[in-house]
């Protein structure tokens, strides 16, 4: 029975496959009309629950019995042929897959190196990179904006921030793109490649520190929590690369696509560039690049919105669906894109102790990149019909694989 024919308040089983992901906002909208939580099938046949309502999403993201520890679900995961928290196929020893007190220790040490000041100092360099990428384009024509602008900008930023040498940058960008696409045949090899590259850099920078984030992570020490271990250093760097790079690539792609599909909103941002920082929050609400949260597991039998959730169940939050359900200031319509929306409320960076450590950098990159793009490209439009765009078909990231546009540089 389709979701549309289910009775109100009755959970509707959903399969999150490539066709679902290509139409995710509309699919989640229909599910949310039926209730805030539904049984779901994910990659490799993994069974769990997906939360689509804003209030329940906030509850789930801070629920004391929903943990990153997958031990209660180990048998089900093994039966599905998938093992979490294994460095050879996952993100290694890092905070995104840890619970307190280990999460508290890892986050405190990483935050001590990845400071707001370090992020703010990147603004001039991000602007220079954005202008360099636009300057490399012909004066007019057709281009894949993902390849020419959206992907290289955050790729260069994170590579320079971590201190990744120029000779490794091509492999680094390729592996970063493939690492979160869990259904792709390159997924595991990409994670292994990134892990090996970063492990080698950690060893090199321990011998010869430089003025970069990786050296700062090596050097940071907390009087209570000591230092990051070798595997924790690599895992933390890998998390910053994979989560930070791919999410920002697709934040830019989803934002530009939304503007091209809403010319009135594009016109407003061109005429009022001071709106861009607030518009970034609206893009994070309207169609975020992180479609779903990472997994949590029920440490005990519990209920969510009256639905029984057995111990060991996997629960994820549809962050975009929650954003479209979030109450907004002045009772504005959450179903529409509004770049003038005051203080757009969303869960694009998560909520609670796992709130994205790199949120300030993502906001800065998106704000600078969109300002430069809108100022420099006097004309821009989709070069193909929107329904011909190909979307990332697996994993937690939402975005188009390519974004062909016709443009004219001013």
Strand content: 5-15%
Distance linking N and C termini: 53 Å
> Count of DSSP E strands?
11
Annotated CATH architecture: Orthogonal Bundle
Describe the structure.
This protein has 410 residues and is of the alpha+beta class. It has one domain (3-409): Cytochrome P450 (Cytochrome p450, Orthogonal Bundle), CATH 1.10.630. The protein has helices at 18-22, 24-34, 54-61, 74-79, 102-113, 116-120, 123-135, 145-150, 152-162, 169-179, 187-207, 213-219, 230-261, 263-271, 276-286, 319-323, 359-376, and strands spanning 14-15, 37-41, 47-51, 66-67, 140-144, 296-298, 302-304, 307-309, 314-317, 377-382, 404-409. The radius of gyration is 21 Å and the shape is globular. Mean pLDDT is 88; it is low at 1-8 and 84-90.
Write the layout of secondary structure elements.
Elements: E1 14-15, H1 18-22, H2 24-34, E2 37-41, E3 47-51, H3 54-61, E4 66-67, H4 74-79, H5 102-113, H6 116-120, H7 123-135, E5 140-144, H8 145-150, H9 152-162, H10 169-179, H11 187-207, H12 213-219, H13 230-261, H14 263-271, H15 276-286, E6 296-298, E7 302-304, E8 307-309, E9 314-317, H16 319-323, H17 359-376, E10 377-382, E11 404-409
Concise summary:
The protein is of the alpha+beta class. It is built from 17 helices and 11 strands. It has one domain (3-409): Cytochrome p450.
